[in-house]
Specification:
single chain, about 325 residues, alpha/beta, Rossmann fold, UDP-galactose 4-epimerase, domain 1, 2 domains, seven-stranded parallel beta sheet, two-stranded parallel sheet, 10 helices, 13 strands, about 40% helix, binds nicotinamide-adenine-dinucleotide
Length: about 325
């Protein structure tokens, strides 16, 4: 298949590109490299075509979509804080960019459109695990744009028969993640500091937990969703269905480094969500998929990657290749 990956130079996108190429697909990446990096993707692979361009630009999108069988739309301003600071600028990327791609997909009769939505559409839910059908409460411009994108995708499916798949990612982690990521950046920060033998700060008692998914699992899932010809109409949570708290993360890190960590606890930060956990039954039912990588295995692989990076360049910032 000929597959377009928007945001293919980013953290999740680059892992997907690697896997699609390995599976024998031709891949086209559309990325403006605002947070992604060319060095994340195998530029010399002849089955890979890279278009440096912006999803806000209708003409670029139209030309790039021409001739592809499927689109995996990952490009976004993936920072919730950026959307709070600049709602208009992020809206142009996170919603108008999506509509540009949908219009081009319609025009070029693209077979399948896979979208990276987010658990942020649920807001601060107290009843866990979070299932897809609860009332949605997007609390930030980022979440509002993700949800609006879902509604537009649904419209293009009903109106024009565009086959679509919507995934609501929980906390994805792994190599190449920017430590400033609001999702799992904390993992990169802890690892970076543990490797450099620096003190680690935890806000609150460390009992706050997230549903972490290793990025290789997500890449497999995205790849399968593109290859599948099954209708996948309803949005699906992407989570492990298991929570891991910060104290557990630190215990694992202690085990990996083989030395005690210097951890200090500070007052909890205002507005921090305490627990987040996905109900992943729909994912298992519809995709017949359960995460292959236990969190601890993903953490070990991420730790080894961070270690390699810091060995290669003591100035390198863990989670980012530049
Ligand atoms: N990482 C997570 O845990 C998580 C959780 C929920 C949802 N998501 C979503 O998954 C997707 C990928 O996230 P990520 O963590 O890999 O982030 P990332 O920042 O590493 O990747 C985003 C990519 O999009 C590109 N991009 C940004 N604006 C663009 C534009 N205007 N035109 C073209 N390209 C543009 C960036 O350069 C980057 O390569 C995003 O849509 C994000 O909202 C991620």
């Amino acid at each position: 298949m000929n597959i377009l990956v928007t945001g293919g130079g980013g953290f999740i996108g680059s892992h997907l590109v690697d896997l699609l190429l390995k599976q024998g697909h031709s891949v086209r990446v559309l990325d403006n490299f605002s947070t992604g990096h060319r060095s994340n993707i195998p530029l010399s692979n002849s089955a890979l075509q890279v278009v440096e361009g912006d999803i806000r630009d209708q003409m670029t999108v139209e030309q790039t979509v021409s001739g592809v069988d499927a689109i995996v739309h990952l490009a976004a301003v993936a920072s919730v804080q950026a959307s709070v600071d600049d709602p208009f600028g992020t809206h142009e990327v996170n919603l108008i960019g999506t509509v540009n791609l949908l219009e081009a997909a319609k025009k070029h009769s693209v077979g399948r459109f896979v979208f990276a939505s987010s658990a942020a559409v649920y807001g601060d839910v107290k009843q866990l695990p979070v299932c897809e059908d609860i009332p949605l409460q997007p609390l930030t411009p980022y979440a509002a744009d993700k949800l609006s994108s879902e509604f537009y995708i649904d419209f293009y499916r009903r109106q024009y028969g565009l086959e679509s798949v919507i995934f609501r990612f929980f906390n994805i982690f792994g190599p190449r993640q920017d430590p400033s990521s609001p999702y799992s950046g904390v993992i990169g920060i802890f690892m970076e500091r543990a490797i450099a033998d620096l003190p680690i700060t935890v806000f609150g008692d460390g009992d706050q937990s997230r549903d972490f998914v290793y990025v290789a699992d997500l890449a497999i899932l995205l790849c399968r969703s593109v290859e599948s010809d099954q209708p996948l109409i309803k949005p699906m949570n992407v989570g492990n269905g298991k929570g891991t708290n910060l104290n557990q993360l630190l215990d694992y890190l202690h085990e990996f480094t083989g030395r005690p960590l210097d951890v200090s606890h500070f007052e909890p930060r205002l507005g921090d969500i305490r627990h987040s956990l996905a109900d992943n039954r729909r994912l298992i039912e519809m995709m017949n998929y359960q995460c292959i990588y236990p969190v601890v295995d993903g953490l070990r692989l991420t730790y080894e990657w961070c270690l390699d990076r810091s060995r290669m360049n003591s100035d390198a910032v863990c989670g980012r290749i530049s």
